[in-house]
Write a structure and sequence with these properties.
9-stranded mixed sheet, 10 helices, globular
Length: 374
């Protein structure tokens, strides 16, 4: 167990002062309360539950100290090292800090609404050891950016692209809608479950690469895909789960409401030469209502924290799939949704847990629902 000197101020890692096995036991007990009549498996954890975050957002203060916001405030808690960030992330951040100081680059002052740098976002491609740096700026112009980028890349060769994100809004939203590529291609490339993915500043991508692969392998194993299967992948994001099993089935249909994630999914499918997967830019429930009579053999659902909808669940069950694999980042809403599934005779006996965010209160749960014949 490692000690974090600021966890009480930061508030992000609620369990970091606990032994890791004790954390996992506590999470299992909490989920068991949600599912008193189900067998809740012990969570699948990490051998080394540190340095797992491949996405980091920090802010700087006027002293050029960087860190995380204190819980529920805009006060920056300066850090030298976060136990959840890898060594390369810290190396890049420290280099950026030195360059900000060297070139006297102004830091955004929220009260005065002036200064250039609002945030720095670091994205890491774990498999390929590539780094994307996103400088979130309160201006459309970054004077001296060419020299800054060259120095950063020279000091940190893992940095393959640097992007200036322009955010002129006086809000707590981190990223703005406009970007300018300062160096590289504007994205990095990572490998997940044997496939290749482009990661840009705004791409949705699982933060814990190692645990994500374990979770996806379990989802596919539960589904037990067949060669002639037609799979419906709902709330699909950039399509990572559907693409991971596409080579095992006849066809995959991915449905995603977010326009940027939908575009990323199409591009990633092309990059991986997957011709039997198509994506639809639509709300999952509306899509189901319009395709009620289509044949599907299995359904994957990975809804947001708020869960699914009664309409979606009713239609999903009426399609009579062999199974429905439900992945959830919020077991509480999943447990509520399963009560609705039971009304339409789809149920499960087991709940599997994956610790995607060690040292925090969060746990990812997955169930396979099949039709219960009375």
């Amino acid at each position: 167990m490692m000690n974090c000197p600021i966890f009480k101020q930061c508030g992000s890692c609620q369990y970091i002062d606990m032994d890791y096995q004790s954390q996992l036991q506590l999470k299992q007990q909490q989920i068991q309360k949600l599912y008193p009549k189900k067998y809740v498996h012990f969570p699948i954890g990490m051998d080394n539950p540190y340095a797992y975050r491949n996405k980091v957002i920090v802010a700087f203060n006027q002293k050029y100290e960087y860190g995380l916001y204190e819980e529920n405030t805009h006060h920056i808690i300066a850090i030298q090292k976060c136990l959840l960030h890898d060594e390369e992330t810290h190396r890049v951040l420290k280099t950026i800090q030195l360059l900000f100081r060297k070139y006297h680059i102004s830091i955004y002052d929220r009260k005065k609404n002036r200064g250039l740098i609002r945030h720095v976002l670091i994205r890491r491609a774990v498999s390929t050891h590539q780094t994307l740096v996103v400088l979130v700026c309160n201006d459309k112009i970054f004077k001296g950016s060419k020299n800054f980028c060259q120095k950063l890349v020279n000091e940190c060769p893992s940095v393959k692209s640097i992007v200036m994100n322009i955010n002129l809004r006086n809000t707590s939203i981190v990223l703005g809608n406009k970007e300018q590529i300062l160096y590289g291609k504007g994205f990095i490339v990572d490998e997940l479950c044997g496939l290749t993915y482009k990661i840009s500043a705004s791409s949705f991508y699982q933060i814990n690469h190692e645990q994500c692969e374990k979770l996806y392998h379990k989802a596919i194993a539960l589904m037990n895909p067949k060669k002639n299967d037609i799979i419906l992948d709902t709330y699909c994001g950039i399509g990572t789960i559907g693409m991971s099993l596409a080579h095992q089935v006849q066809k995959v249909i991915g449905v995603e409401l977010n326009r940027q994630a939908y575009k990323d999914a199409i591009n990633n499918a092309k990059m991986n030469f997957l011709n039997n997967i198509q994506f639809v830019n639509d709300d999952a429930t509306k899509f189901m209502q319009n395709h009620l009579y289509d044949k599907v053999d299995a359904i994957i659902m990975d809804p947001p924290r708020s869960g699914s909808t009664p309409e979606f669940i009713k239609i999903a069950c009426s399609m009579n799939p062999r199974c429905i694999v439900y992945i959830s980042c919020n077991p509480e809403t999943q447990a509520n949704d399963l009560k609705i599934f039971q009304q339409y005779h789809y149920d499960t006996k087991e709940v599997y847990l994956y610790d995607m965010f060690p040292h925090t209160q969060h746990i990812e749960s997955i169930v396979m629902l099949t039709k219960v014949h009375n």
